[in-house]
Structures are given as C-alpha cells and as structure tokens.
Specification:
The chain has about 425 residues and is α/β, with parallel strands linked by helices. The chain is built from twelve helices and 18 strands.
C-alpha cells in the first residue's frame, strides 16, 4: 500500500509496515509476513500513522448518556483516530488528580489512547486556580477550561507560566462571554434573516488577542482552539511572525461549511464558535496552507437527540471524529488545496508534537498505531451507522470522499470496515 508518514519521509511510496509487540518493527518493501495478521492494501489504499485528535469531549464522567470513554474511543477508531485529548467539562470537572486518574484508568481498555486536558480553574469557574502541578503528576497532558474561556486574565497568565514550567501545553477556548451572550449562530446576514441573535466574530477575536498578548508579555506558549474567523487567523499569523509562541487548530466544519448551512435551523450544525462566513472559511483554509494553523482537530461534542431537537434551546456542539479524515480529504485534498502528506501532518504528526506525545509517525520503534484508508472511496454520512452514542453529526447526509478501512491501536486491529 502507499505509505504516508511525514516524520519518516514516506510520501506515498509503496511499502509494508510490520507491527510487533505493540511497536512498529520495520517500514520498507517486501517485509516478511509469515505468522502475521495481514491487512492487504493493494491498489489505491494508503497507510498512515494513527490520527491524533487534540480536541474531544468524551462526556465521561457525568454525562454518559451522551458519550462515554468506550463509545467515544469506538467512534475514534472508526475515524482512524488512535490518540485523543479529552476536554475537562465533565461532571465533576477534571479539576482534581482523582478525576484525571479515573479517566485514564477507565481508558486503558478503550479502542484509542486517551489523554486528559485538566481544568485550569476549579469547576471551570472564575474562582481559584487548580493545583496544576498535582494535575500534571496525576497524568494530565494539557490544561484547558474548554467549553468556556478562562475569564480572569490574571488566572490565565499564572496558568500559562506554570504550565510552561511544567512543560505542559495550555489549550485555550477563546471567547468574550459578554459579546457572545445569548447568541445562537454567527452574527451576520443569515442570523438577521432568521431573526436569531448572533455571536459576533469579535467574541472570538478578543479572546485570541488576549491570549496572544499574555504569551508575548510573559514569553510563554499558548495553543488556540477551534479557530474560525479571519481576524483570529490574522492575529495568530502576525504574532508568529513576531516570534510569539502561539499555535492554533481548526476543525473540518470551519473549512467546509458556513453560516449559510444554518438557514434550515438545524441544531446539529450549531457549535461554539459558530460556523462563520465564506470569507472566514477561505481564511481558515489559507491558514492551514501557510502554516499559521498547525493542526486539524474535531471538537467532537456529543449531545442527545432530545437536546438537539430544538434549534433555539439546543446546546452547542457536533460530533466529528468518524468524519474528520473524509471531510478533510473531500474539502482540502481532493480540490488540490493540500497534499495528502500535508494533511497527515496536520491530523497526526503535528498535533502529536504539540502535545508532546510519542505518536504521529510510523518510524521504527514508535507505537503501533496506524490507519488504513481509501482516499477515493465515496460514502454518504448516515448518523444511524456511526459508532458513538450521539447522532449530531455536522456532515450528516453529505457525500464525502475518503474512507477509513482499518485502524490499529497498540498493535491491535480495533476497527475494520471490511476484510482487507
């Protein structure tokens, strides 16, 4: 099969990958297969390091009617995701070492590797800062209040400095809650046509500007979550040119869809930040192309059908792990905006590096995490056939190009669409 491993210098050359005892033993041509389980990748099939999704809501503990560690990881495996970072807006919030350890221990038998973004403030509120050192000792891989911003700038500054000392990234949900309060979708022509209160782009942009200012002032790094506006893109691009330690991610829905997709008032397409304008969509694509944004994540956010039944009262969030690779192939690679190697870097190699994980490559000695996919197979997204608990798929009903056929995690086949 064709192998794509940016870190290992494989850019579509035909070869074999030999996995043994949970590790990559060799990558090359004509490797011995005697006694091994063989996933045959003839023709156009591709192999790549397992995807690393650095923005996922598993809803566990506390909201397991929406998703849990096992169903979330089952969905991850079906999307080729072998490592994921779960956000702390659970119940209780992941703000104590006990909760962090609980999630990690539960995930030991799941179909993907789970890493925890622990909370920055107690209960994700505006009060005291968490004991970040204790959370790190318990296994936290990042710090975030995602689901909402850290409102207190002094808390955020202290957290960024402490995280830098501990060698752990801060991933920031950028939003000015005063500007976004009560908004259901992007503030613009469509929200006005529907008579719906909107969320201005400035709500995200003000948050992005603050994080960049803190990173610049204190000389510490910060990672910006789910970038959706052209101004936030411009702020990050400018800051990086000035040497500020800022990185960013976006999600497939921000480079594939716009506010126009909400004219039907489908709550499954409501998320935070909201779908923006065509100009914003194009700016996000350009940011992926020129390196302003380093990663594609999903912000996988499950909700029950009952919660999503009413446009006006539904919570924000859409699921996306099972469609992220296909959507990215459809909207970025197929039109020639990115090469397949560039896409694998954005979805695997780079996010692994941002989180400091031993992942994102098929190099000899690396973990045996891989995805096999057909970059040309077409399929229609049917929420009823997805593998998680929730059905609020942002790409439901869409015809996508590219399909995950098998996923290997820890050396075991955890998902197989059909015999290979």
């Amino acid at each position: 099969m064709r192998i794509y491993d940016p870190a290992g210098g494989w850019d579509g050359r035909v070869g074999d990958v030999l996995l043994e005892d949970g590790l990559v033993r060799a990558v090359g041509c004509g490797l011995p297969a005697e006694g091994a389980q063989v996933l045959e990748g003839e023709g156009r099939l591709c192999a790549a390091p397992g995807l690393v999704d650095m923005h996922v809501h598993l809803r566990d503990p506390g909201f397991t009617e929406k998703e849990d560690v096992f169903t979330g990881c089952r969905a991850a495996a079906a999307g080729g995701v072998t490592s994921l970072l779960c956000m702390p807006n659970t119940k209780p919030a992941a703000d104590t070492p006990e909760t962090v350890r609980h999630i990690l221990e539960k995930a030991e038998q799941a179909d993907a590797r789970v890493y925890v973004a622990a909370a920055i403030t107690r209960g994700l509120g505006e009060g005291e800062l968490c004991d970040l050192e204790a959370l790190r000792a318990a296994g936290a891989a990042a710090f975030s209040n995602d689901g909402r911003p850290v409102v207190n700038s002094a808390h955020m500054a202290r957290a960024m400095a402490e995280a830098a000392r501990l060698g752990v990234p801060v991933v920031s949900h950028c939003e000015d809650l005063y500007l976004s309060q009560g908004g259901l979708m992007n503030e613009g022509a469509v929200s006005r046509a529907l008579g719906v209160k909107g969320v201005p782009a400035a709500a995200e942009d003000c948050g992005t500007a603050r994080e960049i200012a803190l990173a610049a002032a204190y000389g510490v790094p910060v990672h910006i979550c789910h970038v959706s506006t052209r101004t936030s893109v411009a702020l990050i691009r400018d800051a990086r040119r000035r040497g500020v330690q800022v990185t960013g991610e976006t999600a497939p829905h921000y480079f594939a869809l716009t506010e126009e997709d909400l004219r039907t008032k489908d709550a499954d397409k409501r998320m935070s930040p909201p779908l923006r304008t065509e100009e914003d969509r194009l700016a996000v694509i350009e940011a992926l192309r020129d390196g302003t944004l380093q990663a594609i994540a999903t912000d996988h956010a499950p909700h029950t059908p009952e919660e999503k039944a009413c446009f006006e009262t539904a919570p924000n969030g859409s699921i996306g792990m099972e469609t992220s690779l296909a959507a990215s192939l459809t909207y970025l690679v197929k039109p020639g905006l990115l090469s397949l190697s560039q896409l694998i870097r954005l979805m695997s190699t780079a996010p692994a590096g941002l989180l400091g994980l031993h992942a994102g490559t098929l190099a000899q000695g690396s973990p045996a995490d891989a995805v096999v996919f057909d970059p040309e197979e077409e399929w229609t997204v049917d929420p009823a056939r997805l593998h998680g608990k929730s059905r609020n798929a942002v790409f439901k009903g869409r015809r996508l190009t590219g399909r995950v056929l098998a996923t290997v995690c820890r050396g075991e086949v955890v998902y197989q669409a059909r015999p290979l």
